[in-house]
Specification:
Blueprint lengths: L1 E4 L2 E7 L5 H12 L19 E5 L3 E4 L29 E4 L11 E4 L12 E7 L1 H6 L6 E5 L5 H5 L6
Antiparallel strand pairs: 1-2, 1-8, 2-7, 3-4, 4-6, 5-6, 5-7
Length: 163
């Protein structure tokens, strides 16, 4: 996924083989293929949303259509914890939630390892390029767009709305 922000690009490798529901949700929202209560059908969900919560030396959080931290897509889904996916580095992409099985559209990217979040927030990708951009983001900066880049047969066949 190529996340274009007002501060630059962030390239993220998603983990569909280990967290298929979470990745399908993120991809489907990014491409406008999942019905939600915040945007019109077919409209890319994340485009134009703000990073509404930024905590220095911890993480940046976005994906809330209200910009308050209380908004979402109008549905929630279960957690997916894979023992090999941990909050063990800067650039961990993870779902923000309000407790077990309350995932929606909000996500965060870490500035450093955050092991206390393991088993509480679903990790579904890692930054492979652009951690410097993550570190520059301030509260109120914007997600211009998220482009899903499919590499390989499995990725090309990945159909988010069907998962």
């Amino acid at each position: 996924a190529n996340v274009l922000t007002t501060k630059g690009k962030i390239l993220i490798k998603l983990t569909p083989e280990k967290t298929p529901i979470t990745v399908a949700n993120f991809v489907g929202l990014a491409e406008g293929d999942i019905k939600n209560t915040a945007k019109k059908d077919g409209e890319p969900y994340y485009d134009g949303l703000k990073f509404h919560r930024v905590i220095k030396n911890f993480m940046i959080q976005g994906g809330d259509p209200t910009g308050t931290g209380a908004g979402g897509p109008g549905y929630s889904f279960k957690d997916e914890f894979d023992p090999s996916l941990k909050h063990d580095r800067a650039g961990t992409l993870s779902m923000a939630n309000a407790g077990p099985a309350t995932n929606g559209s909000q996500f965060f990217i870490t500035h450093k390892e955050t092991p206390w979040l393991n088993g509480k927030h679903t990790v579904f990708g890692y930054v492979v390029e652009g951690q410097g951009t993550v570190d520059l983001i301030e509260q109120g900066d914007m997600i211009k767009s998220i482009e899903i880049i499919r590499v390989g047969d499995a990725a090309e066949k990945f159909d988010a709305p069907k998962i």
